[in-house]
Write a structure and sequence with these properties.
Number of domains: 4
Strand content: 25-35%
Radius of gyration: 36 Å
Order of helices and strands: HHEEEHEHEEEEEHHEEHHEHEEHHEH
Helix content: 25-40%
Largest sheet: 5 strands, mixed, barrel
CATH class of the largest domain: Alpha Beta
Distance between the termini: 106 Å
Strand order of the largest sheet: 5-6-7-9-8
Shape: rod-shaped
CATH topology of the largest domain: N Utilization Substance Protein A, Chain:P, domain 4
């Protein structure tokens, strides 16, 4: 049994890339604990593992005496002679746990210990590999669904994407390769240790970084992102190099770059807007595709602005279910109130009367 156990350790170590010393230490600790009940209470039990010969020995050492006063550390010489006829009074003798008993203990302990140590070691490997990558993109294959959670297989371990970390448009099947943002990495747990997200604004940011070299190189900067997952995203950008058009860099030739990001977002529309340090100009751009006629800052301190748009643009300025103005307000961090061209003309005429 001991020989088989040590062979299993060597094989498991090779397959999982885990040091065999981790297993040897665990087996030793388990045998010490379980073997205590086979000796007198308080006995100093020792474990020796011969890795080369594939042998395990559990024993205690006692002194041979004529009259036993301390059974924990002493053994009667007659009993000692039964174990080894050549010993004498005053000698130390090793009293071994019988092979049959040892085999039974090892069999009970080995499977649990090995699997527990494998789990701990693998969790440590996962944490060390992926924790430094928190906040970046990762790709993996969907292995299964568990209670609406997507379980994604990785190079090492798995990631979990709960429904709240998915866009409403995300619909994937087993075997598909998907991208996601590493939101958090846990050091231990009963399930996947990596929490992924396709819902966060940072997911869009990382997709843009991957698709647009000027962003990853720091030439074009993302000022802010506002998003309604599954519907629309607005991205405000600026350039650190006057010769580089930030909006053009994100959009790409024939719109190929922004379309690639939109495709990964399951067709989500993306508005790319030039950031400006002029609030009026920034707010006007943020309301694209609406035609903005005028922007008036009504409360600088509380970031409130009134925006006049053409009558034809009012619906597009608001957007379906108010999405466009909502995202524009989030993008600019201004409270935007809309008026249309007709209202302004009516108010002007009334004042004249």
């Amino acid at each position: 049994m001991a020989e088989d156990l040590l062979k299993s350790i060597k094989q498991m170590s090779k397959e999982r890339g885990i040091s065999p010393d981790i297993f040897y230490t665990a087996i030793e600790e388990a045998l010490l604990t379980v073997s205590q009940k086979y000796f007198e209470e308080g006995t100093d039990v020792q474990v020796e593992i011969d890795k080369e010969k594939g042998q395990i020995q559990v024993f205690t050492t006692k002194i041979i005496v004529r009259n036993v006063k301390d059974p924990v550390s002493e053994i009667d010489w007659k009993e000692a002679l039964k174990l080894n006829p050549e010993v004498r009074e005053g000698d130390e003798i090793k009293i071994f746990l019988p092979g049959e008993t040892l085999g039974r203990i090892a069999a009970q302990s080995a499977k649990h210990i090995i699997m527990n140590k494998v789990l701990q070691a693998e969790q440590q490997r996962i944490y060390e590999k992926y924790f430094p990558l928190t906040g970046t993109l990762l790709s993996g294959e969907i292995r299964r669904k568990e209670k609406d959670n997507l379980i994604v297989g990785l190079e090492i371990g798995e990631a979990i994407l709960p429904p709240k970390e998915l866009s409403p448009k995300d619909a994937f099947n087993r075997g598909e390769i998907i991208k996601f943002l590493i939101k958090r990495v846990f050091s231990e747990g009963n399930g996947p240790l990596i929490l992924g997200s396709r819902y966060m604004n940072d997911f869009v940011l990382e997709l843009i970084k991957k698709e647009v070299p000027e962003v990853s190189e720091g030439i074009v900067k993302i000022f802010s992102i506002s998003r309604e997952p599954g519907t629309k995203t607005k991205v405000a950008v600026y350039s650190t190099d006057k010769s580089v058009d930030p909006v053009g860099a994100i959009v790409g030739m024939s719109g190929n770059r922004v379309l690639s990001v939109s495709k990964e977002l399951q067709g989500e529309r993306i508005d790319v807007i030039a950031w400006s340090n002029s609030p009026e100009r920034f707010i006007a751009s943020a309301l694209t595709p609406a035609e903005v006629l005028k922007v008036i800052i009504t409360d600088q301190e509380n970031c409130k602005a009134e925006v006049a748009v053409s009558a034809e643009s009012l619906s597009s300025a608001i957007g379906k279910k108010g999405i466009n103005i909502k995202l524009a307000s989030k993008l600019t961090q201004w409270n935007i109130q809309l008026t249309n061209e007709m209202e302004n003309k009516t108010e002007t005429n009334q004042k004249k009367l």
